[in-house]
Amino acid sequence: MAAASVASRVESLASSGIQSIPKEYIRPKEELTSIGDVFDEAKKEEGPQLPTIDLKGMMDSEDKAVRDECRAQLINAAKEWGVMHLINHGIPDDLMESVKKAGEGFFELPIEEKEKYANDQASGKIQGYGSKLANNASGQLEWEDYFFHLVFPEDKRDLSIWPKNPTDYIEATSEYARQLRVLTTKILSVLSLGLGLEEGRLEKEVGGMEELLLQMKINYYPKCPQPELALGVEAHTDVSALTFILHNMVPGLQLFYQDKWVTAKCVPNSIIMHVGDTVEILSNGKYKSILHRGLVNKEKVRISWAVFCEPPKEKIILQPLPEVVSEKDPALFPPRTFAQHIEHKLFRKSQEGKKEEKDALVAK
Ligand code: OGA
Ligand code: NI
Q1: Ligand 1, atom 6: nearest CA belongs to which residue?
Q2: In angstroms, what is the span from residue 63 Cα to ligand 2's centroid?
């Protein structure tokens, strides 16, 4: 398998001047009908739009009525969409800018320089610079390279593999991770209240301060000569408890809502937050983990910074909490560890595919 483990970078392919993309990047023909021009899609004003939740009241209001109203908005969006733009989330704009500048700086390095940080998926070294390997019979690939690393808790980080250049990468990314961790606790407490649970409950169920892992994936989507044939990231739900996403203000993210693909608009200084499978399972489906994907385009490189907040792989059994299960609301998910959940998804994908995913594939 030596040859297969040498991943080729999408960035090299994109900068080679090819006019048509290799067949491995071309989506199955049923799926192609749903892929449009992302700039046109992001301009559309009709149809459902991803909700924007203003956390100002939740952050600093002394007034209980204001706090309750803000919480209700967040809870509703988590039930209805499972994804939203967060504004007034308390993370300073200049800190988010520094994180983005640092990540962009890393990706501006020559490929040879980035290769020094290459991961090695075959030997289990998943952190570092990488690209998707064709791991199934179809050989399907995605139009992106990435940098993946654990950013919190700090004692579990491996700083030796973090980018040394730009020199402020570690400082900016560490501070962002610390502040996201604080925000994670606040969000989980509101989501707990929304299920009628004590406010610390979901946080505890996903591992608390010691065990909940924050993993950053910087997605780098080069310009694509045939964007109508490819995807930056294929349709999936996140396995995390919560995911927080920053991006460089180039549209790309689409959500599969009410049987249609809805393109997320770019909201300045917002953080996109997804409810992932973990919280969907614990809530017995009351909070949704929405199917989503990423389009690419011809004109602009897109970069996104996704932080996945994940429970430990083996230590916790994920299953609907007894308080949210009843005779008329039976458990929708069997007990599984996080590792088993991931395994189950891979298995199901290698089989016939989940119905919703098949429907999404052929949707307009
Ligand atoms: C992901 C993801 C979307 C984006 O990394 O899981 O869905 O906007 N990314 O890059
Ligand atoms: Ni995702």
Answers
A1: 238
A2: 35
**The two three-digit tokens of residue 257, written as one number:** 């809502």
Is residue 304 in contact with ligand 1, taking CB distance under 6 Å? Answer: yes
**If you search the block for the tokens 């075959």, which residue do you land on?**
122
| pLDDT score for 352 | 52
Q: Is 238 in the pocket of ligand 1 (CB under 6 A)?
A: yes
Task: Output Rg (C-alpha) for the chain, integer angstroms.
Answer: 20
Closest CA to 283 of 326, 323, 256, 239: 323
Gap from CA of 264 to ligand 2 centroid (Å): 13
Q: Among 107, 144, 219, which residue has the most ligand 1 atoms within 8 Å of its CB, making it the best to mutate?
A: 219
For residue 5, the model assigns a pLDDT of 40
Question: Which residue, judged by its Cα, is nearest atom 7 of ligand 1?
Answer: 293
Using DSSP bridges, classify how beta strands 213-221 and 271-275 pair: parallel, antiparallel or unpaired: unpaired
- Asked if 231 and 293 count as a contact pair (C-beta separation under 8 A), the reply is yes
In the prediction, which pLDDT does 355 show?
57
d(Cα 353, Cα 345) in Å, to the nearest integer? 9
Residue range 114-166, pLDDT digits in tens: 999 999 999 999 999 999 988 777 899 999 999 999 999 999 999 999 999 99
| Confidence at residue 249, expressed as pLDDT on a 0 to 100 scale | 98
Number of helices followed by number of strands (H, E) in the chain: 13, 14
Short-list 274, 319, 266, CA closest to 292: 274
Q: Is 219 in the pocket of ligand 1 (CB under 6 A)?
A: yes
Ligand 1 atom closest to 238 (CA): 6
Strands (E), the chain: 52-54, 83-87, 128-131, 145-152, 213-221, 233-236, 242-247, 253-257, 260-263, 271-275, 292-294, 302-310, 317-318, 336-337
Point out the ligand nearest to the CA of residue 254. Answer: 1
- Ligand 1 center from residue 231 Cα (angstroms): 11
The residue type of 256 is F
The neighbouring-strand residues paired with 275 are 242
Atom of ligand 1 nearest to the CA of 245: 8
Q: What is the pLDDT of residue 4?
A: 42
pLDDT of residue 2: 39
Low-confidence ranges of the chain (pLDDT < 70): 1-7, 352-359, 361-362, 364
